[in-house]
Fold this protein.
Amino acid sequence: MKIEKILNNNVITVIDEVTKLEKVIMGRGLSFNKKIGEEIDETKIEKVFKISNPNENLLFQQLINEIPMEYLKISEKIISYAKEKLNVEFDEHIYISLTDHLTFAIKRLQSQEIIKNNLLWEIQRIYSKEYEIGLWAIDFIEKELDIKMGKDEAGFIALHIINASIFESMPNTMNLTEIVQDILNIVKYYFTIEFNENSISFDRLITHLKFFAKRVVTKAKVNYEELPFIHMVKENYKSEYNCALKIKTYVEKYHDYKIDDSELIYLSLHLHRVLSSFENE
């Protein structure tokens, strides 16, 4: 591999011979006493970053020049761990957003500036898997840097993981989380039930509401087939349908998203299925 750019003693870029895309290569002392165009010692390579978007790649290179190498390694380790645990591919922007976030989070802690995560309770409840990864991450950071972060920070890390897995911006993800929590409250108080948050039924409900909330946030529409049994649903599942109407009112009032009859019926049917499961558990 020949050096395309030298970012610092530990990070260089090369051009992939197959894709012709620029790759960022990291390794201790990788470019020490080296010049552009020279071959690198491939035994020193610790990590290869392939960011296909040229603008994102440039931002990533700029960030690398501003942060300690250890922070980049920690960020990459967290991302790899999250990919393995969730079995998903992430938006490659996470290499920039999470690394940048961790850098400033560490600076804030060193200056004893504590930022409260106002969505922590919702994140713990709605995105439990991502939150568990956040807890793993703050434990890993403490082991690597001897810096103790709190649960609020685990929540922030979880939000970055959520962003990258649903390919959304941070504001949209926060909005999405609030919508899911608000709808859960509507369902909870309408039916006067307490959710068993460790049950498969609750997991099904959360999964459906996440997809529903994403459509609300992005103003996307799903073309459901015409449901000829709309009157049957209204008659046989009156409670579920009336609850769905309350959700419709909330969404249209506060999030400017129109819910048509087919989506309303689909939501009613899903509520019926989930609530029936709760009764059987």
Q: What stands out?
A: The first strand starts at residue 5 and ends at 8. The mean pLDDT is 86. The chain is about 60% helix and 5% strand. Residues 67-167 form a domain with the PTS-regulatory domain, PRD fold (CATH 1.10.1790.10).
